[in-house]
Specification:
With 39 residues, the chain is mainly α. It is built from one helix and no strands.
């Protein structure tokens, strides 16, 4: 295997009322990838 470095800073918000907090967490001009599972 080749040497490599991987950095993945992640913040996950759980619980009620977290959708409203997103505007505080994400800059207005940010690119966002959203994932969800269905089963």
């Amino acid at each position: 295997m080749n040497n490599f470095e991987y950095k993945n800073p992640t913040k996950i918000l759980f619980g009620k009322g977290q959708i409203e907090k997103l505007s505080e967490e994400i800059p207005r001009d940010a690119k966002v990838m959203m994932l969800y599972g269905g089963g």
